[in-house]
Specification:
Elements: H1 4-12, H2 19-39, H3 42-74, H4 77-97, H5 105-136, H6 139-155, H7 168-171, H8 177-189
Bound molecules: fe (ii) ion (2 copies).
């Protein structure tokens, strides 16, 4: 069983651009954001939910596009397919969730289900997928994958930064979840063309 504190501690031992360190830090933020959304009310609840949606869109898309092709070789096709399927299922659940009244009881119940599913999924990545990846890749390969993720995050930041409110970089996370996934995919496919942010880059492993 993983938790945010363990994930941050493990990430802190790795280079800043190590892909596994970045993903571990994002897992910790995802766990905390679920708690924040549960606890918040009104506008704050909406803002936290939007932050969670943006982070999940970038995180799961990055795993699918950057990590999974390598994991297929290092951890096996069965393992990679199972993780991809869990991510697709979480995407479907999130798209359903955003159609519900955020202040209603059904939202809370669905959010709880998604939190459990996403938390278990992250735990399986950490225990079944990351170790063979670390064993099979060079440190430079892991850092090069991490840099790709960090570059994409400049076009699709997962931290809200008020200075850039209204800028294209701040606007990328607006709209239905399905369109966030498309934009996250675009940012990860051609990160150099998508550099829109002028503010501080949002690094995945930044502490809250
Ligand atoms: Fe994932
Ligand atoms: Fe993950």
């Amino acid at each position: 069983m993983s938790n945010a504190a363990q994930e941050r501690a493990e990430a802190a031992l790795l280079p800043e651009d190590d892909v596994i360190g970045i993903l571990l830090s994002q897992h910790a933020r995802i766990r905390d954001l679920f708690t924040d959304v549960h606890r918040a009310q009104g506008e704050a609840k909406r803002a936290k939910f939007d932050e969670l949606r943006a982070l999940l869109a970038v995180h799961e898309t990055a795993e699918e596009m950057i990590l999974r092709p390598v994991a297929e070789k290092e951890a096996g096709e069965k393992e990679a397919d199972a993780r991809n399927e869990e991510e697709a299922e979480a995407n479907r659940a999130l798209a359903e969730l955003e159609r519900l009244d955020i202040a209603g009881p059904r939202f809370e119940a669905k959010l709880g289900e998604l939190e459990r599913a996403v938390g278990e999924h992250a735990g399986r990545e950490e225990h079944e997928e990351f170790p063979p990846l670390r064993a099979g890749c060079s440190a430079e390969q892991l850092r090069s994958m991490g840099r790709r993720l960090l570059t994409a995050e400049k076009a699709a930041p997962t931290h809200p930064h008020p200075a850039a409110a209204g800028s294209p970089a701040a606007q990328w996370a607006v709209g239905p979840f399905a369109s966030l996934l498309d934009r996250a995919r675009d940012a990860l496919s051609s990160p150099s063309e998508g550099l829109m942010g002028t503010g501080p880059a949002s690094l995945g492993r930044e502490d809250r």
